[in-house]
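Hello,

Following up on my earlier ticket. Below are the two sequence lines again, exactly as submitted.
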Amino acid sequence: MRASRDGSAPLPRFYSIIPAGGIGSRLWPLSRADAPKFLHDLTGSGRTLLRDTWERLAPLSGEQRVMIVTGRAHRAAVEEQLPELADANIVLESEGKESSAAIGLAAAILARREPEVIVGSFAADHVIGDVAGFGAAVRQAVAAADAGYIVTIGIAPSEPAIGFGYIQTGDGVGIPGAPDARMVRSFVEKPDRPTAERYLASGGYLWNAGMFIARADRLLEQMRVSEPALVAGLEELAAAWDDPAERGPAVDRIWPGLRKIAIDYSVAEPAAAAGRLVVIPGAFDWDDVGDFAAIAKLQTGDRKSDLVILGENARVLADASSGIVVGQTDRIISLVGVQDIVVVDTPDALLVTTKANAQRVKSVVDALKLSGRSDVL
Amino acid sequence: MRASRDGSAPLPRFYSIIPAGGIGSRLWPLSRADAPKFLHDLTGSGRTLLRDTWERLAPLSGEQRVMIVTGRAHRAAVEEQLPELADANIVLESEGKESSAAIGLAAAILARREPEVIVGSFAADHVIGDVAGFGAAVRQAVAAADAGYIVTIGIAPSEPAIGFGYIQTGDGVGIPGAPDARMVRSFVEKPDRPTAERYLASGGYLWNAGMFIARADRLLEQMRVSEPALVAGLEELAAAWDDPAERGPAVDRIWPGLRKIAIDYSVAEPAAAAGRLVVIPGAFDWDDVGDFAAIAKLQTGDRKSDLVILGENARVLADASSGIVVGQTDRIISLVGVQDIVVVDTPDALLVTTKANAQRVKSVVDALKLSGRSDVL
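Thanks for your patience. The regenerated structure is below:
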């Protein structure tokens, strides 16, 4: 087992789960069904978001203890990104069933293999720069999970963002190894700007980064309260999973009927309401890179007049222009006098919008779906 | 000889010359060396500008009396556009030498074939909607040319345009068949907005549309005053032109050394200064479609909020967007919340600008030249 980056050993009993499922509709036409967001390098690091996620987690759990849940169509791409991934650690979905099924199945499989396992689920397509800060938060989260809690990691907000959900924090909880843990009072949906500003000023709110850490058996127990049929299906599947003869028939029999529901609703909110959810405030930078404006911001920060160029072969000629260009072709892309522009140039689709309209890109995807143009989605 | 559209016969002794040379840098990447502006349909008519020019002129001179001067590289495209074009009526330039050489050579060839010929030169890439109005102006111009004048047709300005040169008109001239002819006082370069507004208010200025009509011998006589070496070369070339054995060697010997100068400077301005130039005010609509904003305007007029789409296979999905899209690929082009945008999508180059910046597109072409990327020019 490899030592973690700061020289310390992996966390005992900890297993990372990376659900790699979402396409990232607001990043169309870059992200799409056959090239989802997690398979892109959105930071200019030279690595995909999935690879960066792996690099963050492997030192914490050990690289033999990272499980990926992804669609069958992405198996080859995932294995190419993660050559270290053990065969037993890839869970392939025959169809997307949302996060409760994806994370729940992984937890159920791991719990059968190792009853005391503590699992942590982390999206495959988020960006974190401060890896040490992230690791420190995970360490506290694992300690809190070991104490029996369901745990999330919330991000200390750096601005009144309206693109994220928030976590309202409650009282501190005395947990050995998790000195920063606080009770979660409630989850709140994406706010409007004045509400976000109030949240930021109050100091009592964190961004919901969708990170959940718990003993696998506790996670399933919590999910069972609101979704008993789902958990029954997941456990039946898990029981068959490690038998090559049984897995296929079990998947065919069970998976199609599983309910699609986000883990926020099946686990996090009920656990918070029941006083079983704690949050570790993370002091590290984090972004879910939900749209092209977020990608540009990752690279320019507050230097809003800059032009960000992504794409290793992108050839851009810009005159008095700012914004972001994502170039996936070898065409000359020329910008003349356009400000805060977003240009995404792919072989079969071109997007032109502005940073301010970046969230509306989903409307294009919806329109393409309606018009039957799923070949470019 | 075919009758003209209004039923009248072609004008006696009249010969049309269409110099088809300019690339149209401000329309890059649509217009380029191997696909110059005159070979495009910029009006959505389904016909190229060259074909439209031919359709306007053939009824006036007869379709056996239209001469095209173009680059060797465009021969096949021109002949495809103009299947009626007689072999003797295509003059191929081995390299571009500006309008004095192009029009002067055509005039010299025609003058040898038919000493009394009256020639009219009209750009291959302008747009005129009112063909009858244009024809009426040409009729007056031919009458004035027959009376010995060098003649231009100026366009009554409909707005204080800053993208065109202007002609300052002088006194009326009594010419039989050309009741509207006036002396030309001077040519003025593209003005700034206040100057253009003053021109418009005064009523004494017309747009310079680059149309010149004269007896071929008078045109060459005028050109000889300021450019004697050029005209000597053109006449030597013309003397060899209709002998297949002599033409090639004469071209190789003479053409490369000819001076590059616009006919405005070699003929029009000196003729105006000498009191030998008259102008026929044209009441018809006219545009030189110099940039993408002009193309958009052709189609929307004053409905500035519209989105204009050019390109027979263009597939555009627009949400709250206006401007112009020129699509030469089969890609999906999606616009989200962009106003007055200009998007030109070609297989090897993409341009994104705004209508307000349309004139600056030439800067991209200049930058590409400097960087050695002439393959996309």
